[in-house]
Design brief:
Layout (H helix, E strand, L loop, with lengths): L3 E5 L4 E5 L2 E4 L5 E4 L3 E6 L5 E2 L1 H10 L2 E5 L5 E5 L8 H10 L2 H25 L5 H8 L10 H14 L10 H23 L18 H6 L4 H11 L11 H8 L5 E4 L2 E4 H16 L21
Parallel strand pairs: 1-5, 2-6, 5-7
Antiparallel strand pairs: 2-3, 3-4, 7-8, 9-10
Helix pairs in contact: 3-4, 3-5, 3-8, 6-8, 6-9, 6-10
C-alpha cells in the first residue's frame, strides 16, 4: 500500500519511466509507483499518458480529476484487481434483505457514534444526546435515526443557522473532503472484488457509487471535525483557495481507529472493505468500521 498522496495544481506532463511517476516541469520530479496511494489532478491542462493510466489501474492507485469548480468529480477505478470478482458479484446480488438491514444498522450506529465523538473532540455540546440516539437505531434504521441525528449534529457543530443546503465555504469544504474519501472507498471496494454500484441502503439506478455512499457514512465525521477546526459561519462568504483545498486533500493522511488500532485513513477503508467481503462470503456478520479519534497525521516509522 502506497503512502504518498499527491496534488497536481500546475500545468504538468505526467508519464511513467522505470516504474516511477515522472512529473515534468523545470525540474522533473520522480516518485516510485509503489509509494503512491492517490493523485489529485486539479489543473485541466495536465497531460497524462495512457500507459500511466494503465499502471495506476494495475497498482490500485486512485487518480482523481476535478470539474470546472476545482471539485473532485471523477476517480479512476481498476477493473482486474481481484481474482474472484464474479464470485463476489454474485454474493452482492444474492445478499438477503435481513442481512442488508442489519449491516445498514451497524453503519448508522457507527456514524452517529462518530458524530458524537466529533462534537466531544471539537468542544461542542450534544455528544451525550447522540450517544443515546445510537441505542435507538433499529434494523434498517426504519425509524430514521440517521436523519434526526444529522439535523441535531450539524446545528451543534456549526451553529443553529447552519444548513447543508446553502452555498458557503463550510459546505464547499465538506463536499470537497467527502468527495476525496468517497473516491478512496470506491477504489478499495473494486480492489476487493466488489461492484460499487450495488449498495446496501443506497440503491439508485443513476448512481455508480451506491455502496461507496453506504460505507462513507462513518467516515464523514473526520471531514466534519477537520472543517469545524478551520471554519465557522462568520467566514461563510469566503471561497476555497488552492491552499485550503491542498489541506483538505491532506485528510487522507489522518488516522482513525479500527479494531482498536490507529491506522491511516486508507488502511481503515481497506479494513472495512475486507470485512464486507468476508460478510458476503458468510465468514462473519460484523463490519469493521472506523472510530473517530483526535485529528492526527499518520507517521511512518
Amino acid at each position: 500500500m502506497g503512502f504518498r498522496n499527491i496534488k497536481i495544481e500546475g500545468s504538468r506532463k505526467l508519464h511513467i519511466e522505470n516504474q516511477q511517476l515522472v512529473i515534468g516541469g523545470d525540474r522533473d520530479v520522480r516518485i516510485p509507483l509503489e509509494d503512491i496511494n492517490s493523485i489529485l489532478i486539479e489543473n485541466h491542462s495536465v497531460m497524462v499518458s495512457a500507459y500511466m493510466l494503465q499502471k495506476f489501474a494495475d497498482m490500485g492507485i486512485a487518480l482523481y480529476v476535478c470539474d470546472e469548480k476545482h471539485l473532485p468529480n471523477g476517480v479512476l477505478l481498476p477493473l482486474v484487481r481481484h481474482s474472484r470478482h464474479y464470485k463476489l458479484l454474485k454474493c452482492q446480488m444474492e445478499i438477503s434483505k435481513p442481512l442488508q438491514k442489519r449491516l445498514w444498522q451497524q453503519i448508522v450506529i457507527q456514524k452517529v457514534r462518530n458524530q458524537s465523538l466529533c462534537l466531544k473532540l471539537s468542544g461542542r455540546t450534544g455528544d451525550t444526546e447522540l450517544q443515546k440516539m445510537c441505542k435507538e437505531v433499529q434494523s434498517g434504521d426504519r425509524t430514521h435515526v440517521e436523519a434526526k441525528a444529522a439535523a441535531f449534529y450539524f446545528r451543534n457543530l456549526f451553529g443553529p443557522e447552519f444548513s447543508r443546503g446553502e452555498e458557503h465555504i463550510i459546505n464547499a469544504a465538506l463536499n470537497y473532503g467527502y468527495a476525496i474519501v468517497r473516491g478512496m472507498i470506491a477504489r478499495s471496494l473494486v480492489c476487493y472484488g466488489m461492484e460499487p454500484s450495488i449498495g446496501l441502503f443506497h440503491r439508485s439506478e443513476l448512481n455508480s457509487y451506491n455502496l461507496a455512499d453506504d460505507f462513507i457514512e462513518p467516515f464523514r465525521p473526520i471531514v466534519d471535525l477537520y472543517v469545524a477546526s478551520k471554519f465557522d459561519m462568520s467566514e461563510s462568504s469566503h471561497a476555497l483557495t488552492p491552499e485550503i483545498k491542498r489541506e483538505l486533500y491532506g485528510i487522507v493522511n489522518f488516522e482513525m481507529q479500527i479494531k482498536g488500532e490507529k491506522r491511516i485513513l486508507s488502511n481503515c477503508v481497506d479494513g472495512m472493505a475486507a470485512s464486507y467481503s468476508s460478510v458476503l462470503q458468510d465468514k462473519c456478520e460484523m463490519l469493521s468500521l472506523p472510530e473517530l479519534i483526535q485529528l492526527q497525521v499518520h507517521s511512518y516509522e
